[in-house]
Automatic annotation (TrEMBL):
Subcellular localization(s) per the UniProt record: Cell membrane
Lineage: Eukaryota, Metazoa, Chordata, Craniata, Vertebrata
Domain EF-hand: 85-120, 121-156, 169-204
Name the UniProt record assigns to this protein: EF-hand domain-containing protein
Classification via PANTHER family: CALCIUM BINDING PROTEINS (PTHR23055), KV CHANNEL-INTERACTING PROTEIN 1 (PTHR23055:SF82)
Chain residue ranges for the region called Disordered: 1-22
InterPro entries: EF-hand-dom_pair, EF_Hand_1_Ca_BS, EF_hand_dom, Recoverin
A GO CC annotation given for this chain: voltage-gated potassium channel complex
CDD domains in UniProt: EFh
An MF annotation (GO) of this entry: transmembrane transporter binding
Top-level taxon of the source organism: Eukaryota
UniProt-listed GO biological process terms: regulation of potassium ion transmembrane transport
Family, per entry: Belongs to the recoverin family.
């Protein structure tokens, strides 16, 4: 996930033409989906109007129609993991971005998630990550869901990972996850348990800060 966030935002950072608001408004009228106004998105996210303009141009460059369906999203995401199969993890990630269950990601969906991942509070970032892992969206992470996510990550990293992963690595990872996070040992991890456990882990907290200054 971090690779895509970093790459997309660095791509857009390289494209900073000096254009005025009229040009941006004209651009937004010629795509199939017209995003919400910049003023509204500025109020709803942690990005400035100029940052939103840069992000929009990068998004439109990758997705001229103004929306991304799951197949296109998988194709874009798989470019960052040529030695593995990223399709399953990309499916879960797509669903996390597609909060309205519309089957597509609009610029508003993209920039809202990016705002949380780059500029959100620790709690907001952890809530977003929890929702990614909560595949059936019932408010809990169970072992089956976590196993699916971990296997998808291992598939995405591919056979060239070092050191070479053992076949039982996903199960060991999931067992360690629940040993750490399932505080009351009821077989599921709640949002509160997830946030508390992550806040107690220095490595996780450091990873949340990696992309704060990307754009």
């Amino acid at each position: 996930m971090g690779v895509v966030v970093g790459t997309l935002t660095m791509q857009t950072k390289q494209r900073r033409p000096s254009r005025d608001k009229a040009d941006d408004d004209l651009e937004m009228t010629i795509v199939c989906h017209r995003p919400e106004g910049l003023d509204q998105l500025e109020a709803q996210t942690n990005f400035s109007k100029r940052e939103l303009q840069v992000l929009y141009r990068g998004f439109k460059n990758e997705c001229p129609s103004g929306v991304v369906n799951e197949e296109t999203f998988k194709q874009i995401y798989s470019q960052f993991f040529p030695h593995g199969d990223a399709s399953t993890y990309a499916h879960y990630l797509f669903n996390a971005f597609d909060t309205g269950n519309t089957g597509s990601i609009k610029f508003e969906d993209f920039v809202t998630a990016l705002s949380i991942l780059l500029r959100g509070s620790v709690t907001e970032k952890l809530q977003w990550t929890f929702n990614l892992y909560d595949i059936n969206r019932d408010g809990y992470i169970n072992k089956e869901e976590m196993t699916d996510i971990v296997r998808a990550i291992y598939d995405m990293m591919g056979k060239y990972t070092y050191p070479v992963l053992k076949t039982d690595a996903p199960k060991q990872h999931v067992d360690a996850f629940f040993q750490k996070m399932d505080k009351n040992r009821d077989g599921v991890v709640t949002l509160d348990e997830f946030i508390l456990s992550c806040q107690e882990d220095e490595n996780i907290m450091r990873s949340l800060q990696l992309f704060e200054n990307v754009i």
